[in-house]
Each structure stands twice: as C-alpha cells, then as structure tokens.
Amino acid sequence: MSNWEVVIGLEIHAQLATRSKIFSGSPTAYGAAPNTQADLVDLAYPGVLPVFNGEALRMAVKFGLAIDAQIAPRSVFARKNYFYPDLPKGYQISQYEQPVVGKGAITIVLDDGSVKRIGVTRAHLEEDAGKSLHEGIANASGIDLNRAGTPLLEIVSEPDMRSAKEAVAYMKKIHTLVRYLEICDGNMQEGSFRCDANVSVRRHGAEKFGTRAEIKNLNSFRFVEKAIQYEVARQIEIIESGGKVVQETRLYDSDKHETRSMRSKEEANDYRYFPDPDLLPLEMEAGFIAEVRATLPELPDEKAARFARDFALSGYDAGVLSASRELGAYFEAVVAALGSAPGQTHAKLAANWVMGELSGMLNRDNLEITDSRISARALADLLRRIVDTTISGKIAKEVFESMWTDGKPADAIIEERGLKQITDSGAIESVIDEIMAANPKQLADYRSGKDKLFGFFVGQVMKATGGKANPAQLNELLKTKLAGGQAASAPLS
User: Which of 17, 68, 123, 458 is surrounded by the most beta carbons within 10 Å?
Assistant: First the structure.
C-alpha cells in the first residue's frame, strides 16, 4: 500500500423529504404495499405529463447554500436513457449539463484532528427508479414502483478522498448536513441515504488517475468503508500481477465482504442525454434564493464552534454534541435546566453525561435521542445532585440506570434507596478509625512508604459506607488520619 495512492469520489443519493413525488402527486411514505403509491405518471402511461414539485427545488437550493455552492439561476432537466425492468419510461428524468447546484465544498475532520476540504462538483435533482423484488417469488422477479418518481438530490464529490476513512467522514458530514437542513431523513436502512463509490489507485507521484470501478448502492457507513478497502486491495493485486483494472460497475456483497462485477461502466454518451421536452427550464430569481437562505438553520460547524466557545468544550466534544440538531438541542436543554452559565464547569459535566451514559443507553436500546427515556430536565435534576454533593458521580450512575428503567425522578430514587452522601466529617472519621484498627499491617506498610495502599483504605471505607462517603472529603480526612494527624470534624460546607 505504501507505493500506492487511493483516489475516491462519492455520488450520494439523498431522498428529499417532500410529501409527494418530484413529477406527480403520489405520496412518498415508506413501507406501503407494492405498487400502491404509483399513479399514471409514475407508471409512464402514454400521454401523461410530469409536473415539477417546487418543494424539491427549494430543498436543493437549501443544500447548495449550506455548502457555499454556486446556485444556477437557470437549470434544465434532461432524459437519461437506459432500459431496466423497474424504469417504466425507459429513461430517467435527471439533470446533466445544467444542474441546479454547482461547485461547492465541505470540510471534514480526520482522525488526527486535521481538517481537509472536499470539493463538491455538483448536486442535481432527479427521480428515483422503482425496485426489483427477487425474494419470495418463485422463478420470477417482481416490480415495485412505489419508489419510482421519488425526488433525489444526487451529490457528486470531487475525487479528493484518499482513504476509506476519509470517504466515511465525508459521507457522515453530508448525512449530518441534510438532516440539519431537514431535507432528508437520512434513514439508510430504508434507502433514503445511499451512495455509489468511485475507486481507483495510482502509484505515488503519478498525476494521471487510474481506471476506476464504481461500487453501487452502499447503504451503511460500515459497508462504504469495507467495500472501498476490498476494492483497493483488489485493484492493487491486479496491477501488481501484471493485469489491468477494467472500468466497470460492481456490487458489494456484505455477507462475503467482497465486491463483484455487475456490468461494464457506462459513459455519459451511453445514456444519450437530451433536454426533456415536457419540462420547462427552471429559472430562479435572486429573491427566491434570498428567501431560501433566510431559512437556513445554524449549521453543524457553526454549532460546534459555538459550543466550544460558549461552553469551554474541546473540539471533539463540541463536534460530537453537534452531530445532530436533536442531540445539540438536548445538550443545551440540560445545560439550561442545570442553570449553568457559559464557561462554567456544569456544561462539561452535562457534556460528559450526554456523550457517556445517555448515549450508551441509547445505543444499547437502539433509540434516537428524540426517544430518550430520560428528558433533558430529568437528567439536569440528576446532575444537580452531583453538583450539590447530595450523591457522588458513581452513585449517580446507579440512579441513572434506575431512572432509565423505572421512569422515576432522581430525587425519588435517591430518597427511596437512601443514597445520599455522608458529608458529616465525624461520621466519616469514625469509619476511618474502624478500618485503620482492623488493618494494622496495611497501616504499618502504608506508613513505611507503601503509598499505593491509600487506595486500599479508600476502598474499605467506601465499602463500609455503601459507597456513600463524599469522595473528596474522604480523601482529605484519610490523608490526615493515615499520616497520624487529627482531622478537623467540621462538616463539608
């Protein structure tokens, strides 16, 4: 691999969140029985005419503005001609020479923390095809045209990525962005967000790109990474064995973790593009673009920068918490309910719990943040009991699990189980004295220089108090006692 450079470009297909299709009034809801959401336009009956869905244009422009791309004041729909069983018309309405969104760019953050700019060549509107069904039908294939005519935004990158990890980072960034903009639900299992990966290799120092293979219809980040890694290794092996890589379209088999040939790769002239005679060119006035710009939300990079600035978070933490609008809103709601001003440590506490315990539970139960069993206010109530030393962080985790399972508020659980911290110095000293008296050998060893035994004494006191001794207070009292001194008996203020 050290002698080779990988070149990757992605074509991402984002299904736009319109309620009806791009050229007909058929609904776009997922999960309907086959062929129940396709009208005469979708079925390509003779004499029917497409009518453009203006909301799809608004969403495409919104995306273009978000990546600081060129917005074409005039764009044209074209017919992309090819035969496939689930394409009733024998052509797909797409955009070719004049797409609605031109050149733009996004930035990705790499594993080492560095930032890389990835160019976006274009983003064009088109209709989706139907779906061929091969399972559950004996000796035949079925055709479901529910997806036919569903509006897609195809986002085409420049060949700027140099590893599978960069490709995944780019795809995740686009995924985050389209969800922030609320133009695509990003559901990869349902096919709302998928990509084709164009992969080639060349020797380091070479200027000319190698022959590329296109891997079709990758619908998970893990599959994108695995498919690219396999394809890179396959191409290098072919070239180093004296062969030549063939330009073709390939499919990724997730069971065998390999790509296999699907068909020879078509070029633009194979599709015989020409302007669709049934659709007028799209012309946008500056006022329309300005109107769409006014609807842009705070974008992910902007939110991450604000979180880092206002809440004194690291770049990594800010990036994780701004990965979705919903997660960012939940975090801010926790901070607000906790009464933490910008820059205070309470925000860091909230960040740790949202990224740690809460995210862990959501992942375990396969839930989205919007389905969290603990509200932002309820989590803030729990964290407040850590801040005011009612309970320790360790006990808080126990309370959190109970809140998640039983739905009870933190204070009720703490009261029912008697989990309040012991902050009476006299009571803690009494337990320390008992532990020291019960462990004379360890006490002698500690005082002879075996400092690591300090942890032993902490553990014994915590065990004796059921984990309820205030940790900071315990450490100070224990240090004094073990050194042979007399601790102060005033309670912690």
Answer: 123
Domain-located, residue 488: no
Question: Is 231 part of a structural domain of the chain?
Answer: yes
Look at residues 303, 366, 370 and name the one whose alpha carbon lies nearest to residue 330.
Answer: 370
Q: Which residues contact 474 (CB under 8 A, 6 or more apart)?
A: 428, 432, 458, 461, 462
- pLDDT digit string (tens) for 174-211? 999 999 999 999 999 999 999 999 999 999 989 899 99
DSSP H or E segment with residue 108: strand 104-109
CA angle 175, 178, 183 (to 5 degrees): 140
Mean pLDDT of 391-410: 93
Q: Are 333 and 376 in contact (CB under 8 A)?
A: yes
Residues 258 and 405 in one domain: no
Instruction: Please check whether residues 156 and 274 belong to one and the same domain.
Output: yes
Residue 242 and residue 173 share a domain: yes
The per-residue pLDDT for 376 is 97
Range of the domain at 221: 4-292
Q: Is 277 exposed, middle or buried (0-12, 13-18, 19+ CB in 10 A)?
A: exposed
Digit-coded pLDDT (tens) for 102-149: 999 999 988 888 899 999 999 999 999 999 888 878 888 899 999 999
3-state DSSP assignment of residue 27? strand
Phi, psi at residue 91, to the nearest 5°? -155, 160
Nearest Cα to 307, choosing from 327, 337, 284?
A: 327
Residue 465 class from Cβ within 10 Å (0-12 exposed, 13-18 middle, 19+ buried)? Answer: middle
Structural domain contains residue 487: no
Please state the domain count of the chain.
3
259 plus 356 within the same structural domain? no
Residue 181 lies in a domain: yes
Distance CA 446, CA 463 (A): 19
CA-based torsion, 336, 340, 345, 349: positive or negative: negative
239-244-245 Cα angle (round to 5): 90
> Taking the CB of residue 14, how many other CB atoms lie within 10 A of it?
28
d(C-alpha 377, C-alpha 337), whole Å: 6
315 and 448 both lie in a single domain: no
Listed residue (168, 174, 270) closest to 222, CA to CA: 168
